[in-house]
Design a protein that fits this description.
This protein is mainly alpha-helical and 171 residues long. It is built from four helices and three strands; from the N terminus they run H-E-E-H-H-E-H. It has helices at 4-35, 73-97, 104-127, 144-170; strands at residues 41-45, 49-56, 130-136. Strand 1 and strand 2 (49-56) form a beta hairpin.
Amino acid sequence: MITHESKRASRVFLLLFTTLLVGCDHATKLAVMMKIGAGDEVQIVPGVLDLRYAKNDDMAFSLLRQLDHGAPLFHKSLFLVAVSLVVLAVVLSAWWKRRSDPSRALHVGFALVVAGAVGNVIDRILRGYVIDFIHVHMWPVFNVADVLIVAGAILLALVAQSRSSSRDARV
């Protein structure tokens, strides 16, 4: 039987976990800012993986660059902060609606997505851009927050798929 205390402990754990992940994201960004200059790179696996400091004033995969017709950076930055906050609000709302769900995987998935989104939103608000630094060759440069968002989305998709398969099996 799940008690009120165990539910509360789980929620406190998820809050601390999410906060820790945001801290990890920003600690890595700070380390890169302090140790790797703009345009420099540190090879980890030559020809495959390196670290390089990059200011990303666009969104994932440079999608806004396709729409950018000389708009001032300030306007683009405000737009991206607004969009990011709306998306974050939608994710938080979805998580809140499922707060009683017993699935730990579901809650960890939401925590990962929220932590990544918060990490990048903080960058956009404080700097006007996101710091990216992980470069897997043949892929755009990204950061820990991006990894958290993708990992969380994959986990949420797996939970949804598992539930869908269970429902199909019962029919």
